[in-house]
Amino acid sequence: ADFHFIMAPIPEPDLSSTGGTYDVNEAGIQFRHAPNLPTPKDGAEFISRLSKGLKLNVIDRPAKNELVFELIGVDVSFANALRRIMIAEVPTMALEYVYMWNNTGLIHDEVLSHRMGLIPLNVDPRLFDHYGLDTDDDGEPAATDRNTIVFRLNVSCGRDAKEDEKIRKKMESKWKGEGLVSGYDVAEAQKRKKSKGKTSREDADEDTQAEDDLEPSIMNLSVADKAAADAVSASTVRTTPIDSPNRPFTKHIYTRDLLWAPQGDQLSRFPLHSSGVGSGVGGGIRPLHEDILLAKLRPGQVIELEAHARKGVGKDHAKFSPVATASYRLMPRIEVVKPVYDDLAEELVNWFEPGVFKLEPADDGEHAFEAKVVNPYACTCSRNFMRNPILKESIRMSRIPDHFIFSVESVGSMEPEVIVAEALKVLKEKSLRVHELASGAQNMTE
Question: What's the predicted TM-score (pTM) here?
Fold first, then answer.
């Protein structure tokens, strides 16, 4: 999807609907109370108030896996419930069972299994069922191609790099005969797809993405984002280990060495030339990143195992969490109580809160320019300006209690906006269950 962000004017907060506001002063944050609205007489009035004030706006997409949006007109309990659901109750796929056949490496079986469980998989969990829905003839849960993904790891270390490459190529023909898919196979399929030429739609998508990358970040993170992207794409990044001539050969085992064993019709549902669902290279069902180091082997050491991925949620184990971070902060409100001119204005713009204020020509005829608030989203609520007694009396800073700015960073298996939508679905289901229980309890009392 194409995103175009326009910063809308921020309406003045209705203190009667929030019960007050948080004032930021030198000592910290203090809540300033205001008269509340009368309590809703029934559920219909409550829903009416909520629907009138509820807003959800996308603010920024700093990167493909990051989303910044604002949620307006809700209580902190709603915002925190949404955050916790994104972390712990949106299901994903992760390696759950590891069957270790042979491991003569230095890493213990338990440690290697734990490392493999934390590998993010580039597959949409919505296309799989929870384990337990399908049963066998005895009524026991059965593993099927709709609830289980199978990976194998069969690696050994030769005496040197040349011998090790010969062993790998020999094993590749065996794996292909068994229908196993490695990271090398996906890379070859992707290259063949690119060699056939790009479609006009793909070219348009790339052009749109390039234009989006040039747009300034509303959160004032453009410089940091560009530096991170340049560091990742730098030609100096090494993809192969450095071998010292005076030590035994060491083989590095990466996630690209994991072999996907398609079950049932999985290969037709997830072809190798597909573009993928997350931020990975796509193609089949593969780890999201093919360069995650799993283990190191010395000559003669072997690892043979089979791993099964299942669907789960983050409250059972952190490996199932779809997000790296999901947090929110209250929307800052900046008011210029007294005009700030010339040197003080320049000091305020360039030192205390970069990106929040902007110098504009003064219209009083006595000063050259003054400071104006242009981007309160970039405010970190720093109180450094309060060290200056004049600025302390000129600027008033507060936080709006029912205006939340969310920052969501996806691990990569799902787009961040999809995670938000799935979290809202979970929250809706939980609310319906509570409503059903309350209705049932009321019927019992009657």
Answer: 0.80
One DSSP character per residue, 344-402 reads: HHHHIIIIISTTTEEEEE-SSSS-SEEEEE--GGG-----GGGGSHHHHHHEEEEEEEE
What are the tokens at 90?
């949106």
pLDDT of residue 215: 46
CA 138, chain centre distance (Å): 41
d(CA 139, CA 374): 64
Spatial distance between the Cα atoms of 293 and 284, rounded to a whole number of angstroms: 21
pLDDT of residue 203: 53
Q: Round to whole Å and give the CA distance between 109 and 113.
A: 6
Helix (H, G, I), strand (E, B) or coil at 87: helix
Residue 333, amino acid: R
Q: What is the mean pLDDT of residues 228-236?
A: 53
**Tokens encoding 429:** 């289901």
pLDDT number for residue 278: 43
Task: Give phi and psi for 37, each to the nearest 5.
Answer: -70, 155
Distance CA 4, CA 216 (A): 11
383, 399 contact by CB (below 8 A): no
Tokens of 309: 């991925």
CB atoms under 10 Å from CB of 319, counted, come to: 20
Residue 322: name the closest of 417, 255, 253, 388 by CA: 417
Residue among 436, 203, 422 at smallest CA distance from 326: 422
- Rounded Cα distance between 278 and 288, Å, is 8
User: Mapping DSSP to helix (H, G, I), strand (E, B) and coil, where does residue 94 land?
Assistant: strand
Place of tokens 């005076």: 246
The β-bridge partners of 306 are 99, 152
Give the E-state strand segments of 279-322 in sequence order. 293-297, 302-312
SS3 105: coil
User: pLDDT digits over 182-204, tens only?
Assistant: 777 777 776 776 666 555 445 55
Q: Tell me 131's DSSP state.
A: T
Each residue's pLDDT tens digit, 148-189: 999 999 999 988 888 888 888 888 878 877 778 877 777 777
